User: Fold these one by one.
Assistant:
Number 1:
Amino acid sequence: MASTAAPSSAKGSPKSLSGLAPFLRPYRVQIGLAGLFLVLAAATTLAFPLALRSLIDGGLIASDKGTEAMALREHFLALFSVAVALGLFSAARFYTVSWLGERVTADLRNAVYAHVLRQSPVFFETTQTGEVLSRLTADTTLVQTVVGSSLSMGLRNAVMGVGALAILIWTNPYVMVQVLGILVLVVLPSVWFGRRVRKLSRASQDRVADASAIAAEVLNAIPVVQSYTAEDREAARFNASTDNAFRTAVRRTRARSVLVAFIIIATSAALLWGLYQGTQAVLRGDITAGHLGQTVVYVIILAGAVAVLGEVYGDLLRAAGATERLMELLHAEPVIVSPAAPAKPAAPAAGSSLSLEHVGFNYPSRPDIPALRDFSLNVAPGETVALVGASGAGKSTVFQLLLRYYDPQSGRVLLDGTPLTALSLDTLRTRIGLVPQDAVIFSTSATENIRYGRPDASIEEVEAAAKAAFADGFLRALPEGYDTFLGERGVRLSGGQRQRIAIARAMLKNPPLLLLDEATSALDAESERMVQAALESAMVGRTTLVIAHRLATVQKADRIIVLDHGGIVEQGTHASLVAQNGAYARLAALQFVA
């Protein structure tokens, strides 16, 4: 996915987490509070061994029983106070950090999703939908784990580890210098081995995304899969993908396990050496029993901190890979963008005028095959023009250029005399209503589906559009009428019903330019007659371009354009084209005779 490459400086490194900085910056206050509670919790933990030393040396060595009992009570009260403070500070830290994790993850997910929605079709030619969904779910969950938990634990244990180490060096300088020398020998191989873990973490996330892409593709085409009895075959394909992800995850887990085991064993050996030296000092009378107890607890704190930091480092490596993948999406630049200073053309009075001037266009995925060759076409305001021709002739390409999903490599396209590249995408697409061949129905009510192009439309306007598209009757017959949930992709409706809702949606938008891509192809004969009549009335006062394979639906068009291999070969009315006895006449003879 070259188009979504992240900056190379952050590739495969924990530095990739720096990409989260813009999402953390708005929450400086919460981060400050979390840091404060973190330091207080760590300081309270470090104070515990001091209270324990005081208990051993002061509370257990007294001149009489009464004094000893009073001293013990005071020391245990001090220990309990430390425990209460630790509990309160830890709870406050946990809440603040968890809130941060949830908020930052939500912001990140929203930013990536909104950015992906603005990508041009070129992006989706090279990026699978399942891959995007995997990054929005699995990868953001990893980021949430780090920001909302692991990072806080790592920082807390780092503070405690550094504090415990400082106190140990202060109280036992000679022994701890030896221990530090051994720890350096532990860190160097750990860093080297961590690089392999990082690479395997990224590979594991990529394999999970591959499985998600397969699942998304198959579930979106489940009727076709079942009609070809390919359930077992697709299940086997998904199984092979998940097995591949499992094997990669096992390699990652094995590497992490070896890394963690090495860190814990090597660190524990170093610290036990220091503890052994401490016991020898007690036997020699150099330090007290309380001093040794304090040293033991600090050694345990230091060992635990190092072990946790080893685990956290592994989580950071996984989150770095996840952040890297999310940043790739967030840094992907759309090929089609609005101009910095867009033009503001006047609203057309009776439909928009169109002009395609010597347009040449090749799809990025097929650079050697021209989709349009020196294509020129002028459409007057209010004119109805039909585009006909064999599949691949360039009809749909004209629509894609008008909507500015792509820009031509040569020539230009104008709407109402203004080049499309001078218009903002919102201005351009607000002026166009599209009824695609495969009607898109969203998982919501019929009302919201019709209102999709005009969210502020009243219910009366929605119902009027539905009546004009001959959808009112079947919508009122649904269990909850217009408020009926239509299911994912409108599975509760027939193909003709879905198409009529799409037509009602375009009518409600009321644009000056209407694009009909085989708008009646999914209708039965009776519905087609009704919708055709509705469309003819909707065409009044606006410019309409119609793509049609069934020529009977475009006989009344003001002009019919016959395309072949990306160029115009004939144009005229139905009668004049039939009289020419050319390509259109041959198509008409085949269809009408049949």
Number 2:
Amino acid sequence: MATEVVLNPQIIEVLILLAAALLLFASEILSVDVIAISLLLYLTTRGILPIEDALEGFGHPAVIGVGALFIVSEGLLRTGALGFLSNHLQEWSRGSHRIMTALILIIVMIASAFLNNTPVVAMFIPVVLGVCLRSGMNPSAVLIPLSYAAILGGTCTLIGTSTNILVASIARESAGIELGMFEFTKMGAILAAVGLVYLLTVAPKLLPERQTITSLASLGGDRRHREYITEIEIRGGELIGKRFGDTILATAGKVRILQIIRGEEVIWPPLDDEMLDLGDALVISGTIEDLMEVQDQTGVASLSEIVSEARGTATQKEAQLAELLVLPSSPYVGQLLGSVELRRRFGLNVIGLQRHGMHMRSKISEHPLRIGDVLLIQGTPEGLDRIRGEEGLVLMSGVDDVVVRKGKAPLAILILIAIIGLLSTQIWPMATVALAGAVAMVVTGCISGTKIYEAVQWKVLVLIAGTLALGKAMETTQTAGWLADQVIHLQPYVGPYGLVVVTLIAAALLTEMISNAAVAAVLVPVALKIATQLELAMGREVSPIPFVMAVAFGASLSFLTPIGYQTNTLVYGAGGYRFSDFAKVGAPLVLIIWAIAGTLIPYFWPLYS
């Protein structure tokens, strides 16, 4: 009979720490890497983990392997290894929007099975926008399926997503379980195929029609597009000393005033009786045309002037509007608009900012940029050309993919094939093969030595290292065992196979709120304990692999929110979607995936040996 873990003060402390970490990850109050480092500090200062154990995560095979594969992925993308396929989409589709969508999703799905899916989606966003501009498609009909296809493709192999790498590494270290390159394929391929059918048949009926600058061009100038948030500052003129309700800003009805910022004070609506003063900053929302008209008012400084302190823009004849998407690897994440200096470096003026769910507590010019932000910019064609290909930014209007080292594409593909082959044989550990692949990319000139540091998503690696320490603390304090006991109590009601489904759903729900890597690091130790406790309760040998796989697939399949997975965050901004759009399109897919995975995981990986 299984001996239950007794709840003690240390377990309670770790549970509180776990809950606090989950809340912080979900709230995005702090950056994920800051939260991860804070976890390390707490665990060591409280004596829960020795400093050596807490820092082990930075040298963990999963961290090394994921970091090296970031470099391999970047080498393939920068050589244009996928460029040939993407550049011929319109030709192959023969004018059919449905065929074109299918080709895009299939290419992305296959690519994501062997490359990190975040850079794949980042590369395809401008490709999709360019194709949509030429063909008359609306990008919002393609971008959510694009993200979902990348997620589904990533579940098909060991290296398709950092989640699989992390799960396999923890399972190997903690339980001696070896998960090979294609161990995930039998389940992942089925889910990908079912998902592809859903995205091509059901999803189009659920997808909303949202507008971007690109879709404006393809729709012949329809102005029913999404709003941007911008900031203006009162620096003189007739607005000073006037009651806000009597000014043109209140009576024009073209823009919405979200708040007035006066020094450290934030004044919220209703604002009609508020007297305007010199230096007041007004946060406003409206369409592109309306925002530009308001910023032309006498005595008003535009956002561009506020962040650059330089008046004047490109002439009306030359000026073009475009959008810039901020990527996860961008060095601009966390920087203020003023410090980005787009005007000085590229001659571009920032007109507005598009960020879903933004709750302003300070001036826009003082808000740090986040992943998925979309900047509305204005400048000359020359200025836009100069920023094309800038690290960490995607120009989203009328552009195609940027190929840096075309002649190296065959070499990059050969390196990827070698990596897949070596991982399939399991001669060397995954981290060793990935490092060898990264070195080969640099030695062969597929990516320069300086670019490799930009290719690595350091925040992701720090996050993994920090959550690995939390997972280790859960093991050493028996917190994982206590949580496993609570799950085992459900066994009389759901049965042993039902526990696999419970594990799957728990991982899937958590990954909608926090990083998939964090979910994997925390839940794999719990999954292993569930198998151990179930074995003691059943009096027969129970395989931990079904529970490990339930965590792997559950943590990877984020379809309900735009914040659970980085590819969703990217298309969230680029497609002009609302938060609820993801749940509307993703909820039926989630139920289908849960039903298939819950049924087939125990079939492919039997519960009893």
Number 3:
Amino acid sequence: MVNGVVSTGPNETFVQVIPFSGVGRAFSYRVPETLRRDVRLGSLVQVPLRGRIEYGLVVGHTQKLEVDISRMKMLAGCLYPVPMMTPDLLILMEWLQRYYAASYESVLETMVPAVIRKGIAPKVHTFLTILKVLSAAELAGLKRRAPHQGRLYAFLQEQGKPCLKTDVFRVLDVSRSACKALVEKRLIREFSETEERVAYKDVHGDIEGEALVQAFKLNPEQAEAADSIGASIEKNKFQAHLLHGVTGSGKTEVYLDSIRRTLETGGGVLFLVPEVALTPQTVGRLRSRLEALGRKTVVWHSHLSEGERFDAWMSIAGGEAHVVVGARSAVFAPIQNLKLIIVDEEHEPAYKQEESPRYHGRDVAVYRAMLNDAVCVLGSATPSLESLYNTQVKNYQLNKLTKRVDDRTLPTFHVVDMKHEMGKGHVPLSRALVEKLRDRFEKKEQSILFLNRRGFSASLLCPSCGFVACCNRCSTTLTYHRSDEILRCHLCDYEECAPKRCPKCREQAIQWRGSGTQRVEDAVKAILPKARVMRMDADTLAKRHRFREILADFRKGTIDILVGTQMIAKGLDFPNVTLVGMVDADLSLHMPDFRAGERTFQLLVQVAGRAGRGDLAGEVVVQSFTPSSAPLQFARQADFEGFLHAELEQRREFHYPPHRHLIRHIFRGRNPEKVAFVAEQWVRMLEKAGIEGLEIRGPAPAPLEKVKDYYRFHAWYFVGKVSRVIPRLAALKKDFKADRDVIDVLDVDPMDMS
């Protein structure tokens, strides 16, 4: 292989191509001479297969041909002049397929975006401009001989600059043949320019002037962490760092310093964030620092337009972009000379994909860094137990930031026992929280109220007959949305009109149980009618860029109180926020998940971290029916070490992750008896196989037994090393005579146990 070109001899070139059609293996093709310059490892090509032309990816070259060359088919075309996947991504593709027990088709479709496979054309603008200046007499003669040509020429002369061709014909009533004639006479010139569709083009950070070029002065803790990461970057060897910093400790400044050091060595940078909502803020900060240094930052995530995604990917593949910021899928961006990967808020479950291939973005980032001899920085105020365990066994290097920037104090933590508030009937807000909201409003300070449940009420209950409104397709209750008077299932989006009477006994005194963000919003407006209250959840953010607009208004101070779900719980920095209220802290604590305590502790700390990030001290009010629970008490005292010790000890006792890996095997189908039978038969066969190091639990109905008309059973496998067990499971699945009506999926290192 020379300069990336795959070849087997001086006169012939052969490549191996995996088609996107799902055949699951590579085929050998001859490369015509006209395509040899463009076809390289990672190129997207067109191949003849099964009597039609299909797209495929070049994954290797053939050295020993096992078929007659004369019968070997030729490539039909090459989509782009540059490869769409780098060599390390080709290795990563094989690892994803093996580790996550996924098909080549699903892996390829995930790693090579649909917009790239479609091949959207660039956005091109055509301009017209004067080429030869005519005298007044010459122009008058032109107008007499050819009035349309004369008017068009005079218009361009008046403008004095190149004009968009479409604008010219929209303003002037002239024929297109007149334009063609002027071009042929060389009186005007027609030319085209490609416009790059840049995501968040209008987004810039708060830092201006000399700060663009010079890094901020780091405090001693930040400097120590940055130097540690910088030393790893200089070694040009793989090293994973866990940056554990309390909320408001300035982790972003350490990231920026590490990015600067990497760019100075000519390396590329990948910056991952868990939510699309955090991308604009991160992009603004990076662009404000890096554009003056001549470094291009692009954005990649699924919520961009097709044009923005296409242009961003082509900019990355062509080596023009040095820094990529994006959500989970950006981990597959074809960055040239990748030397630094940053995974912000690494503990977030959003990094885990719930469709095949069910990869975890954080783990893939670490593996990709290893393939590139790069540095991977995992950052969080509440790191996952898996990452902390890796620091204990010396796989990762731990860097700590224990203080907030400028020695700002952590917010004061108040816990309200909601059992004492029940005498007043169902109220979403406690008296203590209401008093503090009024106080902050009078002081012109801002507040955030957090509740991780959208809608108005969680369920409808008839006290007379006990009827509960449930989804017919899923094992869950319907949520009441008062804004449009409907009951909606948040799993399958089924909806129906909210009844005024009980559908079963016709009783009028139906009750709405539980609170959602809509009810909290209404309660705040009733308490503070003059306050400017905004709700931010999936129901209010249907409009594109609405999230950015709301956060911009909140930062400007045009919103006094922000009510929202988990999307406002992390990564956002508002200096004037001095009060954060967590309306129902128990929601995540009672989930059927061994990570429930860890998730609750992380959420409490992250939500509390939104308060007191400026010069004013902050307060946090947590409402709970179980105020003595361990996660809440540890969060109240900001005792991360205590929580870590207690939780790890409990996991060690039960041999749960991170001490072992977990594989969740999900069976689903429309017939519950058939699903249960297939799951039981599979587990029996697995027990007979006696795979060493495999412990089986189940099968049993999943906590959410029915979702979208599919019944679900699952089995859990505890293993020491996934790479040793997955091939055995895959081999057994080939021999297992499963019912075609039952679908089964292996979920390696699952984050969702529902």
Number 4:
Amino acid sequence: MTRTFLNSKGFRDVPNQTSISQRSEGEMKMNSMKWYVASVVAIMSVATCNFALAVPTIDGNASVADGYASLSVQTTNTQFGDADTGDAINGGGGSEINQVFGKIEGGRLYIVVAGNLETNFNKLEVFIDSETGGQNTLDGSTLPAGVDGFCCGGAPDGALQRMGGGADGLGLEKITFDSGFDADYYLTFTNGFETLRPGLPSELQFYAASAAFAELNNGPTGASGTLGMQLAQRGLPNVLRGTTADFDTDGNVDGSEFLTWQRNSGALGGASRANGDASGDGNVDGADLGIWGSNFGFNVANSSLADFPFAPQSAGIDNSEALIGPALPGLSQGNLLDRTYALGAGGCNADNSGADCVAAELEFVLPIDVANDPMNAFSHRDMNNFVDLQMAFDNSNTAGVTGDSGLAGNYSDPTLEDPSLVTTGIEFSIPLSAIGNPSGTNIRITAFVNGAGHDYLSNQVSGAGTLQENIGPPGFADFSDNAFFPGDQFVTLAAPLSALGTGSVPEPSSLALICLGALACGLTNRQRANR
């Protein structure tokens, strides 16, 4: 029986066997094409998703999604205090290192030093060995002076002289690293409550985390400087906003604060803000009621960049999460505030006076106002992020090593806790180009907690740890002496052989070309198979 088909105009078509075969072959090719296109789309989607997940979010946390590898876990309980509040800024008076994570992605080095850094300007010191040469024993007379100068008096003194026996006599004895570790670059991180225009009617105190950098292989004139700051936790591009009238630290001022004041009114001496003392004099009286009244209705969610700059200084009272205010314009997660930002998106006047800044804190990063303040009584810091560092602080950890060994101050026994559980701390990212473009070699990193003046080492060190009490003045720090410091106090990360090997994310156009190439090859092979 002959099958009859009606074409689009109603006439009968009687296809022969050949046309049916040709149509079947065409349909097969079309289906094949559809299969390849669907496959390529799926591959591109997966690849794009995987590439995106591989670039860490700079938030102070080595999350699983960031693809970090743990490079070391140390086992020495901290003698610099144990954080216990869980607050992302005011961790509770402790500094510790639990483990170190790292990876290389997109031409950048990413590191997380998991632990805590107390907001008393204790330092996390980081030295990077990424080139041939370098310093195995720090010699301050051959290194840039004035690094973190506001800490240490400025040139000829500075952080590197404090750790490297400066020729001026201000430094202490020289730190020696493990055998095979020759430091080429230096980063130091700190956080605390800075003061702008100290002692003046316009004095402003605020929380800030900051970082400084120095290259160590070009003598005293090597590039160095304070890079920039952040004004909120976890690398957020926000400012902290609040008021001392917020007695219950929930981010707003309402009737509950009045009830607190009413219950404690008349208290003389020893009162805290939680008791209704807004003025900070230890009393609960009419002055505090006046502060409450003038701030009634404040809500951090509706605050502006110009409102209520606030430094959360009481670890037992403040809740830093409730203080997160508006975001700064044009600032991204993990980026630093420096003079370029302040004079650009930050709106500050080009005369460095601090006028017109969108947030008052931005004046802190400006160069000296030579016209009005040549002696820098305003305490400008002239920050310049010339190496494109990114960072984030998260002091919320309460796990990991504890504040004592459990054996009456004997720190020679490994902790009974589990430091491998800690993933939050200080995270930073720096371009490989800023550390000598290492390729096909190992990048070594050592990190340790130091005192506020860069001159008193804790017992918290990367790598194997110390199993010692606080090291004290750097003269006692000879990490190459295995009798006192067994194992390596540094971690190692392999640098890829080429730029392609850095794991850099291809541009979408490049990724599309790769996938289209795969599609073309697949179609060609398919056609050959059908011949």
